[in-house]
Amino acid sequence: MISPGAVDQVFVTLKDWIVFHTPAPLQTLVSIVIEVATIIVVFAALFALATVFERKGLGRMQNRYGPNRVGPFGVFQPIADAVKSLTKEDVVPRAADHVVHYLAPLVLVGVVFLTYAVLPVGRNMTAVNLDAGVLYFFAVGAATELAIFMAGWSSHNKYSLLGAMRAIAQMVSYEIPLILSSVAVIMIAGTLSTVKIVELQARYSNGLAHWYVFTPWGLAGFILFMIAATAETNRSPFDLPEGESEIISGYFIEYSGFKFALFFLAEYLEMFAVSGLGITLFLGGWSSPVSFLAWIPSWLWFFGKLLALLFAFIWVRGTVPRLRMDQLMNFAWKFMLPMTLVTILSAGIWHFLTVAVVGPKPLGGVIRWLVCALVIFVPYITLARVLERGRRIEKRVYRFAE
Amino acid sequence: MLGEGIIQGLVETARNFFGSYVEKDRLTTVQYPEERHTLPEASRVFPILLYDGDDAAKGLRCVACQICEKECPPRCIHIEKSKDKKPDFVGKQQFYPAVFDIDVAVCMSCQICVEVCPFDAIRMDKVYELSTSDRFGGLLWTKEQLSKPNEYYQKIHPMEAAETDERRVKELAEAQAKAAAAAAKAAQTASPAPGDASGNGASAAAKPATAVHE
Question: Would an 8 Å CB–CB cutoff place A293 in contact with chain B?
């Protein structure tokens, strides 16, 4: 009988075994290559899975079947897509800046893969345990903006440039709420290391894990984080940079064939990465929510949560239409930013409402929870009232049509 | 409250998502090669030539009058009239088309050929899977390919076919009555001197009789 602990550590053991059987001078190199190759293969496979899930999920939300022709239930659709994109002609506009045009998708994919280095996908399964892991993630993640602007600028196309400018404006605006909402977690955890943050959440009291999402500031922070992450990854309803109907796919309009597929890949990888960080910061990373389910391997927990968040992304995409640019900016600066600041305040209050202040555990805990929830809820209602003041929603009247 | 509408929307899409796995009526897609719509009776795609009886060459209703060829807006019909004649359903001697070709690629399914045909010879078919690997020969349909028995027409357009058949039976009865009257008159006038005239009358009366049998 294999113990749950051994199943949990099966990949770590396997890697150690391979490294152990290589010559001593090569051990570091082999270790790095194994880790990098695993990340690339696993997340690229997840990308393939995600595309077909997304298309089928969106289809079902619109009462359609979605792709169901290639293989059983259409599961081999990604292979057909890959063959298609690989055999397409790679067209580069004559006026384009060839070098930058060529480099942009590579930089984008490369940068996105770099962010995976600090994601703990399981117990002892982090490629690099950096002390400043969260900071590293945001620093590297911000470089995607550079790649997107490279693509938009080098294409020498108005629509590309418009898309790239929109992307920059949006990503810079939403980077702030994204980082500020994770600041609350960093404050409470007292560390920037992703591994430590998960370990802090993997403790249990009364059978329930100490996930930050179970606290009022964590719940609000998680929602704000996911909204900002949606904007950060240019997904619907924040997909203005690639609005098909307005700017015909934006910054990657001049890309075809496999380079286009790389942009697609990068977009999904970015989504996984930022979801992975959301899981790490708020949803307890690889830990189980209740202690009696702790026997399930940690990597299954992580990927299960990742798929759940992926479904949430697809769900939102199937529900909400694209925003307008001014709505997008108003939302970022007038709603997201104040709310994240309130979340930080609430986290601070949570920190100082210790047992000494609110009393012993059961009642004291409830008081602490309610006070912190109120600190978030009251500003939320007030802000919503202020933002909706003077705005009447009525039936649209068309002057010339109908 | 801010965000309420989004929650409502999410609930609606979730209902669609799960409902589409439970209720089959939600999915309106007809998965074409395996499933097909039943076509309405009036649907039309491409003309066919009708014939009575079993033999397409003998019973073809077309008399090569070439009205359809002249009326066809995209000019996809090509007819060559025969040199000899054959009897039609009432027994009258008529030309028949030696060549009758329609180009599938050109036909626009307007049904004008059907509207103008005085002989109920050309009608519209419902078959719509007409693609072929040979874009020249495969798309030019000859008389033999176009010929379809009247029973087929009754099957695809039952209401139209009933109306046509009724009219044709009436026409046939009228023609027979006329022929019988002519024969009787001929017999009356020819009775004092039976000879060539009565022989002609008998042959004229005998022809429709064969057609009636058909």
Answer: no
